[in-house]
Structure formats: structure tokens, C-alpha cells
Design goal:
With 604 residues, the chain is mainly β. The chain folds into 3 domains: 318 residues, Glycosyl hydrolase domain, family 43 (Tachylectin-2, Chain A, 5 Propeller), CATH 2.115.10.20; 147 residues, Sandwich (Jelly Rolls); 114 residues, Exo-inulinase, domain 1 (Jelly Rolls).
């Protein structure tokens, strides 16, 4: 159900029909979202522009000789879509014959065609991840601890991929069962052993933390839930160590049943259209309906996620009207570029994504993104050249050109298929990522050039280029030493920014600014010097004040404005702000004995 910028779970479909979507996996590609879901007859696929309104496209893969297609996942690499899924022979009645397989396609909606079977054993719930230019796979099996005497069951493993079509075959455990709420069935085999189930791995990466969500027991059970684990990010994913939050012995579900929704689990986490906010997409079923295991009842639900230290916060499952996922400021689709084209006004900071392909030519292909264009003599261009197979950052300052950066592209980079170019402009600093390659950071210093108005554009150099999608949000993420740029957004009391964050040179860190009349989400990740004798206070010049109480040393405060309404979310609790009219508002944030470790802002 949709109403202006509001929506209500479960999500709606364009044909007005009810569609089930168990185990939803979301792929964001060329400005659209693709949902792949479990089904008896094949893998279902649906398309959306905004996560709330969907169009069912049928089956991405369907084979007459197989059934029970479970938990598909899809990754796009250099023109090819790789689908990982499990199924059983049509004549089989044993669901433990589910084996992990691969199918490929050159279109996100399919058709996909079987390519290979990875394992001749029970193997399900794949989730591919690209990390520092390498692919890894999370998946679940029964035989890792299935014969253990005390705790037996399904668990999550991870392995490196030699290629999208080959495992390295060096798996290691990631999440094992430890809680009674993770029991799938007591005394399952009549030998006194309970069977536990840990499955549905779903990653989230923010800053230096790498969360892995999981689903436990079975969706028909009372305690079915989504749990969280967290690890410190490392260069190699195989070196990370995930720990349950808050501990192995305490049940702290991110999502579980309530009076309105049951069977909440097996999710993906994906960015909102604004490319900043994280949303969880999961399946649930209406509690008012009688559970019928012979009829599929699980539909697609979505909720925003909030982060507070090691904790992930979700206010779901919801069944009432709520704010839709944040939209970008600008979105343009399917433009063909043969010369220079300006797309939108620039900004001191923004996040932009381009999905671009080029038409093949014997003379090669060359095009550029104008990230900060003032005039013909003052601009920054991120340029890609097929012949040299490289990306360059070229600065023109008062008519004098210089190359700021040169990096080689992947050896097999296919220039004629869509590629993602993501650019984060943070005042004079830039972060560039092409597809899944490691992020490239560089700085541009242009003196008083920064004071001039700029635009964002694209230019083709004697080439034909297709811009499948362009999306831009006025947003920024600052952390570590980059927090010194917070002084360009707030008036900040004397402080120092280093790799650990922004801290006061005195006892209290003060931030102050005028309140803009626009919708935004602002996030502060805070770390206290000790568990006591610290505070965070928000003060407005109309006399209103809110003091934040918290139990953990690491916590967060979100400051949100929508349509004139304002509120804080502090350590997972919502605090309304009284509406103020008739005067220009300012806000002051005072942090005593605390430092800011991360700052995020998004214009909504």
C-alpha cells in the first residue's frame, strides 16, 4: 500500500495481486531493484524502482525436471548475471537433496540456464560477496556439525571463490548455533539430540564493522528470528571473526514475530534509492491467517535499519503506514551521450552513481564524468579509456591541466556492457569505485575555485556512450581524519580529528549550525570515554533541550526531519522534537567526555 511518500507492509505489486516472495534476495542494477525469491516451480523475479512498488516478471529460471527452488542469490560481473540456487529432482520427496547450483544469464530477469552443480550434498542459502576485489560465498550446510553429540544442525560457512564458477574449497565456519531459540526440532532423530538451524546469511558493511545477519530455526516455529553477528573488517574476508550480538548466550533478535506479523526472516540488506540508508528486505506472513504449511504465505516486507555501536536496530516487523525509503535528488535513465551533457547542479559534497556502457569502435572508447565543472578552464574529469584500459582523474585549474590519478582497470574489463561508477565527493576529497574494485581515494586542491558554482555532467570523446542510469544524492559520510570536514557543516569548538574520530581539546565538544528547511537524515556515531560521567545534549534556540541517556560506550544519535516534523533516534529509541515556528532555528550539540567516530548526512 502506498500513499505519497508513505507505504505499508507487505509491499504492493502493479497488477494488484498478492505475490509471495520467500527468501527475498535483492540485486540493485542500473537504477532498478530485482527481487529473486523461492518458489516450488522456479525462481521468481520482480522489479522495482523504489523498494515499495513492484512488478512481477515471472520465473527467472524454471526447469520441468526440478522443483523446490530455494533461496536464490544473484551477482552481476562484467556483463554476466550469476545465479546461485538450490533445488531437488521433480520426483524427489526428500528436501535434503537440495544442492547448491549455478545458472547464468545476460539479463537480470533471465532466462537463466543451469551451468553446474557445486556440491552433491545438502547446501543452501548462498550469498555472494565482493570484498577488496575478490569474491566470497556464504552458504549453509548440514554436515559440518550434523554428527556432533551436543549441538548438531545447520550452520553457515564461508569460502573464497576462485571465479564466479568455482569455489576455492577451503571453507571455514562463520556462525554456529549456541541458543535454545535456534532449535529447529527437539530430539529430531530420536537419539536425544536437538537439531539447530542457522541459515540465510546477509552481510552489512559500514565503516570498520562487518555485520552478518542470519535466520534461525524454522519460519513455522514460535521463535523464528533474525539474529546479528559483527566482526571488525579486515583486508581478507576469510580472516574475519564474527561474534553474535550481544553474546553467544543472550537472545537478542533483530526481527521476530509480533501480533500482526509472523515468520519474519531470511533477508537481504540493500541501500535505499538515495544510496545511503540501509533497508532490510525479508519475508513475513500475516498473523491473522491460519498457518498452512501446504500453501505459501510468505510475502515481502521492508524496514529501515539503524546502527548504534555494534548493535543493529529495527523497529519491525511493521504493518502500519511509515516513511518510504529515501529518494535521490536526481535520477536520469537511458540517455545516449555523443558530446558534453550537463546533468544537475553540483555541491560541496554528494554521492553519485553512474551505470555506463560504450559502443564498440575500432578507434576505441573514451568518455568522462565531470564531477565538478565550473567552466571550460576549471573542472575535474574522471575519464575512462578502453585502449589503455585505465581510469584517470584530470584536473583543469585556470586552463592548466594535470593528471591527479591514473589506475588500471581489471584486465578483462568489458567496456561495452554496463559498469557501475560510484563517486563520493567530500569537499576537496574524492572516493571512486568502479564495480567491485577496491576504492580509490584522492584529493584535489583548487584554491578559490571551490567558491564557484559547479555542475555535474558527462562527456563523450569521439565515442558513443549509453548512460543507463545516473543517480545523485546530497549526502556525505565522514570518519576518522575525514571528520575534520565536519567544520564545513557545523561550527565546531576546538577539536582534533585523527584515525579514531573527532574529539574535543577540552571537556566538551560543541557543534552548532542553522537548521535548514529541508528533509534530511543526520547520523552521529559516538564513543564515550567511559560508561559513566558522559552525556550528549541537543539544544535549540527556542529553549528546547533533549539529553541523551545511554548504557553502552558506543552508541548513535539520528536527527531526522520530514515535512516539518523532527525527531531523534537515540540508541534505538525515538524522541519527538517539539515543532517551532516564527524564528530562524539553530541547533547545538554538546558531547561531554565523548568523541564522534562517524558522521552521515543525507538530504531526503
Amino acid at each position: 500500500m502506498r500513499e505519497n511518500n508513505m507505504f505499508c507492509n507487505p509491499v504492493v505489486f502493479s497488477d494488484g495481486k498478492r505475490h509471495t516472495n520467500p527468501d527475498p534476495y535483492i540485486l540493485r542494477w542500473c537504477g532498478n531493484y530485482y527481487c529473486y525469491a523461492t518458489d516450488e516451480s522456479g525462481v521468481k523475479v520482480s522489479i522495482s524502482k523504489n523498494l515499495t512498488d513492484w512488478c512481477y516478471e515471472g520465473y527467472a529460471i524454471k526447469e520441468d525436471t526440478y522443483r523446490n527452488y530455494w533461496a536464490p542469490s544473484v551477482i552481476y560481473i562484467n556483463g554476466t548475471f550469476y545465479m546461485y540456487y538450490s533445488n531437488v529432482p521433480a520426483e524427489s520427496s526428500d528436501r535434503h537433496e537440495e544442492c547448491l547450483k549455478l545458472a547464468i544469464s545476460d539479463r537480470p530477469e533471465g532466462p537463466f540456464f543451469w551451468k553446474k552443480t557445486f556440491f552433491e550434498k545438502f547446501s543452501i542459502d548462498s550469498h555472494p560477496v565482493m570484498w577488496n576485489g575478490k569474491q566470497y560465498m556464504f552458504y549453509s550446510v548440514n554436515d559440518w556439525i550434523g554428527t556432533d553429540e551436543k549441538i548438531a544442525g545447520t550452520c553457515i560457512l564461508v569460502d573464497e571463490m576462485v571465479s564466479p564458477e568455482q569455489f576455492a574449497k577451503t571453507p571455514r565456519k562463520v556462525i554456529l548455533p549456541t541458543l535454545k531459540q535456534e532449535i529447529y526440532e527437539e530430539n529430531r532423530f530420536g537419539d536425544g539430540r536437538d537439531w539447530y538451524t542457522i541459515e540465510g546469511a546477509a552481510p552489512i558493511v559500514r565503516g570498520q564493522r562487518f555485520w552478518l545477519l542470519y535466520s534461525a530455526n524454522a519460519y513455522v516455529n514460535e521463535d523464528y528470528f533474525v539474529g546479528t553477528t559483527v566482526a571488525d573488517s579486515k583486508d581478507r574476508l576469510m580472516d574475519m571473526n564474527w561474534k553474535k550480538y550481544p553474546s553467544d548466550d543472550i537472545w537478542y533478535p533483530l526481527l521476530k514475530k509480533n501480533e500482526m506479523v509472523e515468520g519474519t526472516g531470511h533477508n537481504t540488506v540493500e541501500k535505499a534509492p538515495n544510496m545511503l540508508d540501509d533497508w532490510i528486505i525479508y519475508h513475513g506472513r500475516k498473523a491473522e491467517e491460519i498457518l498452512d504449511p501446504d500453501i505459501e504465505q510468505r510475502e515481502m516486507y521492508i524496514e529501515p535499519l539503524y546502527f548504534s555501536g555494534d548493535k543493529v536496530v529495527c523497529f519491525g516487523p511493521s504493518s502500519q503506514m511509515q516513511e518510504s525509503p529515501g529518494n535521490p535528488e536526481v535520477q536520469i535513465k537511458n540517455a545516449y551521450i555523443t558530446e558534453k551533457q550537463m546533468l544537475c547542479p553540483g555541491s560541496p559534497f554528494y554521492i553519485a552513481e553512474f551505470w555506463i556502457s560504450a559502443q564498440n569502435s575500432h578507434t576505441g572508447m573514451r568518455y568522462g564524468i565531470l564531477t565538478d565543472y565550473k567552466n571550460e578552464n576549471n573542472y575535474l574529469e574522471i575519464q575512462i579509456c578502453s585502449g589503455k584500459n585505465e581510469v584517470k582523474a584530470i584536473q583543469n585549474a585556470d586552463g592548466i591541466k594535470g593528471c591527479v590519478l591514473t589506475e588500471k582497470l581489471e584486465q578483462d574489463f568489458e567496456h561495452t556492457v554496463p559498469h557501475l561508477i560510484r563517486i563520493e565527493k567530500k569537499f576537496h576529497r574524492y572516493e571512486l569505485r568502479i564495480d567491485y574494485a577496491p576504492e580509490i581515494s584522492f584529493e584535489v586542491h583548487a584554491g578559490d575555485m571551490d567558491q564557484r558554482e559547479s555542475t555535474v555532467g558527462i562527456i563523450s570523446h569521439f565515442s558513443k556512450v549509453r548512460m543507463h542510469s545516473f543517480t545523485l544524492t546530497r549526502g556525505v559520510v565522514l570518519e576518522g581524519k575525514g571528520l575534520q570536514d565536519l567544520g564545513k557543516i557545523y561550527c565546531v569548538s576546538p577539536a582534533v580529528a585523527d584515525k579514531d574520530g573527532l574529539r574535543s581539546l577540552e571537556n566538551t565538544l560543541k557543534l552548532e549550525k542553522k537548521c535548514e528547511a529541508l528533509d534530511f537524515t543526520e547520523e552521529l556515531q559516538i564513543e564515550a570515554a567511559c560508561a559513566s560521567d558522559n552525556s550528549t545534549v541537543f539544544k535549540w534556540n527556542d529553549g528546547q533541550s533533549i539529553s541523551i541517556e545511554h548504557e553502552d560506550r558506543a552508541y548513535s544519535v539520528y536527527y531526522i526531519r520530514r515535512g516539518g516534523r523532527e525527531w531523534l533516534i537515540a540508541d534505538g529509541k525515538k524522541l519527538e522534537i517539539r515543532e517551532s515556528t516564527g524564528r530562524e532555528r539553530t541547533v547545538q550539540i554538546c558531547l561531554t567526555n565523548s568523541k564522534i567516530t562517524e558522521y552521515r548526512f543525507a538530504k531526503n
